[in-house]
């Protein structure tokens, strides 16, 4: 989302990041969702990743206004799906980690110094608002820490909306340093968690993580890594995201694939085309 918005000329150097456009230019959010759908995407992830009550309050948005903006994020994705005509498309409401709201890179470290109970209290109001907006599912994404994953899994319990749980990782561990087997075990026995996986990570870390997620949970696995560049106050390094790697992710057990930071509609179009040409049809999984 952010990459595509920047390509359209928007400056996202703001603590709200993409969520600022929910306030300033909602039509642009719709346009970007539509561009991904036209590229072959089946699932839109809403622009709510960095939208929090705390962050919006710092911009002078009161609680009622924040609730309206969170709801709007789901409505805009629905609008884009409807505008693209026939075909079943899903809307996944993005629930970013606590660290995203701090806007200081904490989502790449975890270990915030908060208890699981405190994280539950912080996440619950936002998750409840997004759930009330009736997305197809919740994307509990870019989670750096198994403690936060536990809190999120507790929060979604009983809400009646399926969710995927996706960690951001470094090699074979979470960003907080926990072994992936331990981290994915958080999802076991949680009926609301219908898929697990990784996002906002290096492409080369995907195959191993997918295999661990599948072995530990038996659930469908999702993978949407970054371009391969690293964030250090700006994007550094080389792009390593290539659609040629995606059949390997599918072979390892991934059911849903895509891209995160610095991966745009052009790359998603290549992913869809590669899966078709590899004999792995670009088909939609069963609705959760």
TrEMBL record:
Binding site for Zn(2+): 200, 260-261
Gene name for this UniProt entry: mmuM
NCBIfam families: PRK09485.1
Protein name: Homocysteine S-methyltransferase
Cofactor(s), names only, from the UniProt record: Zn(2+)
Entries under PANTHER family matching the protein: HOMOCYSTEINE S-METHYLTRANSFERASE-LIKE ISOFORM 1 (PTHR46015:SF1), ZGC:172121 (PTHR46015)
Organism name: Pseudonocardia zijingensis
InterPro entries: BHMT-like, HCY_dom, HCY_dom_sf, Hcy_S-methyltransferase
Keywords for the protein's UniProt record, in alphabetical order: Metal-binding, Methyltransferase, Transferase, Zinc
Hcy-binding domain mapped to chain residues: 1-275
């Amino acid at each position: 989302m952010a990459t595509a918005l920047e390509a359209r000329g928007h400056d996202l150097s703001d603590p709200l990041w993409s969520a600022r456009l929910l306030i300033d230019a909602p039509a642009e959010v719709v346009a970007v969702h539509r561009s991904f759908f036209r590229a072959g995407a089946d699932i839109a992830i809403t622009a709510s990743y960095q939208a929090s009550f705390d962050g919006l309050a710092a911009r002078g948005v009161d609680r009622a206004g924040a609730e309206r903006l969170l709801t709007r994020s789901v409505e805009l994705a629905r609008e884009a799906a409807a505008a693209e005509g026939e075909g079943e498309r899903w809307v996944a409401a993005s629930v970013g980690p606590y660290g995203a709201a701090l806007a200081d890179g904490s989502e790449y470290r975890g270990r915030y110094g908060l208890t699981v109970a405190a994280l539950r209290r912080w996440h619950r109001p936002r998750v409840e608002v997004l759930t009330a907006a009736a997305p197809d599912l919740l994307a509990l994404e870019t989670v750096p820490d198994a403690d936060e994953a536990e809190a999120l899994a507790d929060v979604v319990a009983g809400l009646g909306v399926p969710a995927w749980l996706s960690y951001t990782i470094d090699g074979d561990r979470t960003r907080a340093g926990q072994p992936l087997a331990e981290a994915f075990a958080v999802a076991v026995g949680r009926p609301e968690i219908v898929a697990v996986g990784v996002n906002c990570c290096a492409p080369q870390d995907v195959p191993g993580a997918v295999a661990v997620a599948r072995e530990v949970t038996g659930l469908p696995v999702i993978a949407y890594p970054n371009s391969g560049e690293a964030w250090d106050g700006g994007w550094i390094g080389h792009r390593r995201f290539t659609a040629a790697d995606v059949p390997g992710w599918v072979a390892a057990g991934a059911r849903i694939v895509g891209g995160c930071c610095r991966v745009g509609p052009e790359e998603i179009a290549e992913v869809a085309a590669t899966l078709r040409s590899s004999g792995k049809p670009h088909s939609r999984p069963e609705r959760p």
